[in-house]
Amino acid sequence: MSFNDIFSSNFLENVTSVSIVDVVIALILAFGIGVFVYLVHRKTYKGVMYSSGFGVTLIALCLITTFVMLAITSNVVLSLGMVGALSIVRFRTAVKDPLDIAFVFWSIAAGIVLAAGMIPLALIGSVTIGIILLVFINRKPNELPYIVVVNCINREAEAVVKKYITENVTKSIIKNKTVSKDGIELNIEVRLKNEDTDFINHVVEMNDVNHAVLVSYNGEFMN
Questions:
Q1: Pairing mode, strands 183-191 and 171-180
Q2: Which of 66-70, 138-142, 185-189 has the lowest mean pLDDT?
Q3: Contact between 134 and 43 (Cβ < 8 Å)
Q4: Tens digit of pLDDT for each residue in 11-31?
Q5: Residues 166-183: pLDDT tens digits?
Q6: 78-91 burial, b if ≥16 CB within 10 A, otherwise e?
Q7: Pairwise CA distance, residues 113 & 37, whole Å
Q8: For this UniProt entry, which segments traverse the membrane (predicted)?
Q9: Which pTM value belongs to this model?
Q10: What single-letter DSSP state applies at residue 197?
Q11: Which SS3 state, helix, strand or coil, does residue 51 take?
């Protein structure tokens, strides 16, 4: 291989296909938007334990998508190769919260738009999405749902408990009923009256009731 072959190589010609200034500007903006997505996700997270790894992934996704798209937009042949290479990527990690999917797509979409040179669209779109998510996710519902778990000895006690709970909450729905030789266990979704939880104390004091528990939940019931 001679020096003429090296300087005539298409690889060296492609080095100047994307300017250094464009790359720096795109990556700085991608990092800024990625951090914004991370902060919105952290502010709106409703789970028990926040995963910092997922937050960093959102920043990395925005950066990775940006420089991949810069490469694709600079070379048509390379774009076809990228489509084939990326088609074999499979995501095996289960997403626990459906909202996490929205944040992942937000990071990817921001990277794509930035690399396409649509900077105002990327900035205005990201700010708009962030404000909407902050408003709607942090909006507190009027009535938080609770689950009442009651263990009764017989059917008579079950009927009395269901009637008493219905009369002392604004709404009650039976989610699950388990019957065994040891008794009957009911899982009832309730909406409290003025956040009053004293009714659960009276349920425990009823005859033929072993125990009663009141817990809050997010509205998703798994039997």
A1: antiparallel
A2: 138-142
A3: yes
A4: 555 555 677 888 888 889 999
A5: 888 888 888 888 888 888
A6: eeeeeeeeeeeeee
A7: 15
A8: 20-41, 53-83, 103-136
A9: 0.61
A10: -
A11: coil
